[in-house]
Write a structure and sequence with these properties.
By secondary structure, this protein is of the alpha/beta class. It has helices at residues 14-24, 41-50, 59-63, 72-78, 83-92; strands spanning 2-8, 30-34, 54-57, 96-104, 110-117.
Length: 121
Amino acid sequence: MIVAGFGFRQSATLDSLRDAYAKAGHTAQSIATAADKAEAPAFQALAAELDLPIVAVAPEALEMQTTTSQSQASQAAHQTGSVSEASALAAAGPQARLLSARVISDDRLATCAIATIKDAT
């Protein structure tokens, strides 16, 4: 299972999310983000475009993840260093590891990180 996790600002567009996903460099089987962001129109549009299911990650699950990136904004809003990394790790499961640390869209409105379970290739 490969999961693309996303963090994004409220003003992020579909293009912002697409750009971050493309930069992450992997094809996912699902996309994930913080539960309070999962209904955002741009995120819903990306899921529809990619024909991928959405995993809405609960705040407690985000907080439990160890992230390689540390964003003050993410820490303040979601108690994690990276919403994209934490979302990908939480959605992939307890044996997950990052394939790609967060990458940032050119407009700096979205981030994407890729996680997989440890035994997956």
